């Protein structure tokens, strides 16, 4: 039998390679891509390593995680309005309410998983909470014991003169600081719609006890570890990072209530992947994903069916009793006045 002419063999090889490339390219093109924007750090790592791989496998999709804090995510959505590149946005509840007010979120489709959520999680018809932490008080247990002080148990303890220059407090540009302002207003006869009593209490009674107004969580941890402060306004999730170092930080839910801070999600509109966006949010709300995120990043499940180990549960607002006791703030009112409050804070409180 005659051997094939070299030029014919080469041509056949080229055709085979071209066909293979076209076939591979077609398969690659058929795989959809979903762009999810959310916080960096431990949240990003938890999603990339523990949540996203399972969703990709289940739906044959490539998920690209776009990291940025909630303010940065909101700014991206605003800049891309009408030509959105992001499909799903994950933000703190304050910025999420701004996104809702600006019509950036699509309506959530009906799904059985939403019936399993705590009522606090349903932010609107377009957005849902996907995890919750509490704003409360963190204190150095050893420092309190050495001084013979009882553990703090009230937001009013921030005004106690014995803590002069021993408290760390985030500014009003930080959600924890904003929560403190609103709670001080409520305790003194005001509310989100009447913030005057909150400013007066902070300026006259809390500020003298504040050594520093600290926005960065790592800086607050450092001041606590150095003994510069013995008490601070903390988030339950943030407290975990310092507790995990072995530092004797205790987190307290004040008797008036810890304040809910939710991580929230919505599908963006317009959206090139509307169905996958809805499926991703539903997946994040599944008991499996909720349990993983609770363990990895300290956000308590909003799905009532999730079962956590006692060790994990004790570190967050877990279960109907703790969740129902959380205070929910009026973000619609707050967001309308936040820039004005920030200017006033800088002028009168943090001088």
TrEMBL record:
<feature type="signal peptide">
    <location>
        <begin position="1"/>
        <end position="29"/>
    </location>
</feature>
<dbReference type="GO" id="GO:0015888">
    <property type="term" value="P:thiamine transport"/>
</dbReference>
<protein>
    <submittedName>
        <fullName>Branched-chain amino acid ABC transporter substrate-binding protein</fullName>
    </submittedName>
</protein>
<keyword id="KW-0732">Signal</keyword>
<dbReference type="GO" id="GO:0030975">
    <property type="term" value="F:thiamine binding"/>
</dbReference>
<dbReference type="GO" id="GO:0030288">
    <property type="term" value="C:outer membrane-bounded periplasmic space"/>
</dbReference>
<dbReference type="InterPro" id="IPR006059">
    <property type="entry name" value="SBP"/>
</dbReference>
<dbReference type="Pfam" id="PF13416">
    <property type="entry name" value="SBP_bac_8"/>
</dbReference>
<dbReference type="GO" id="GO:0030976">
    <property type="term" value="F:thiamine pyrophosphate binding"/>
</dbReference>
């Amino acid at each position: 039998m005659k051997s094939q002419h070299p030029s014919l063999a080469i041509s056949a090889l080229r055709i085979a390679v071209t066909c293979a490339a076209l076939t591979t390219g077609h398969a690659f093109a058929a795989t959809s891509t979903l762009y999810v924007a959310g916080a960096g750090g431990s949240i990003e790592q938890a999603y990339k390593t523990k949540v996203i791989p399972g969703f990709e496998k289940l739906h044959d999709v490539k998920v690209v995680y776009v990291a940025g804090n909630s303010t940065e995510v909101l700014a991206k959505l605003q800049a891309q309005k009408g030509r959105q590149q992001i499909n799903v946005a994950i933000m703190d509840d304050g910025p999420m309410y701004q996104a809702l007010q600006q019509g950036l979120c699509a309506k959530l489709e009906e799904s059985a998983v939403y019936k399993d959520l705590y009522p606090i999680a349903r932010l609107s018809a377009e957005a849902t909470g996907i995890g919750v932490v509490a704003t409360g008080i963190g204190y150095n247990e050893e420092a309190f014991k050495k001084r013979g002080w009882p553990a703090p148990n009230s937001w009013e303890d921030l005004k106690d003169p014995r803590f002069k220059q021993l408290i760390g407090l985030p500014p009003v540009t930080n959600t924890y600081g904003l929560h403190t302002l609103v709670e001080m207003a409520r305790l003194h006869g005001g509310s989100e719609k009447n913030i005057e009593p909150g400013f007066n209490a902070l300026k006259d009674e809390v500020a003298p006890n504040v050594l520093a107004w600290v926005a960065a969580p790592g800086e607050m941890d450092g001041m606590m570890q150095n003994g510069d402060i013995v008490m601070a306004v903390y988030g339950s999730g943030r407290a975990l990072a310092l507790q995990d170092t072995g530092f004797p930080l205790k987190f307290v839910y004040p008797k008036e209530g810890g304040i809910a801070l939710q991580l929230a999600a919505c599908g963006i509109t317009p959206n090139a992947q509307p169905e996958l966006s809805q499926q991703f949010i539903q997946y994040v709300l599944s008991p499996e994903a909720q349990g993983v995120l609770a363990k990895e990043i300290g956000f308590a499940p909003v799905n009532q069916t999730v079962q956590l180990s006692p060790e994990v549960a004790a570190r967050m607002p877990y279960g109907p009793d703790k969740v129902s006791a959380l205070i929910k703030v009026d973000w619609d009112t707050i967001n309308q006045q936040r820039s004005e409050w920030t200017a006033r804070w800088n002028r009168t409180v943090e001088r």
